[in-house]
Design brief:
By secondary structure, this protein is mainly alpha-helical. Helices cover about 45% and strands about 5% of the residues. It has a two-stranded antiparallel ribbon with strand order 1-2. The protein starts with a helix and ends in a 16-residue tail after the last helix.
């Protein structure tokens, strides 16, 4: 909601905006108070960042390996189970995924 965001961030404390129209209707914005929140220390978020980076790299590697290889199924049953995208079709009485 760009118009709302632009109006809100252009105001000073206690200032009231002119009417702002968004897809949700008309708004009048007043900023009561502003404050800055310091970012958390790196040590506090290090594990979370590392996990996200590892997941991203793993997804990219898997995608690359799938795109670079041709998989040939010699077992007719396995060939019938696998979809072209590499995922498995559901079997009777359960699923493989």
């Amino acid at each position: 909601m760009k118009p709302f965001e632009d109006a809100a961030f252009s105001l000073k404390e206690r200032e009231i905006s002119k009417p702002v129209q968004t897809k949700f209707g008309w708004h009048i914005i007043q900023i009561q108070e502003t404050r800055t929140q310091p970012p958390p220390p790196f040590e506090q978020v290090k594990q979370q960042i590392m996990g996200q980076l590892l997941q991203s790299k793993a997804r990219a590697l898997i995608t690359q390996l799938r795109n670079d290889r041709v998989i040939e199924y010699v077992d007719p049953e396995a060939k019938n189970i696998m979809k072209p995208d590499g995922s498995a079709r559901a079997l009777e009485g359960g699923s493989i995924e």
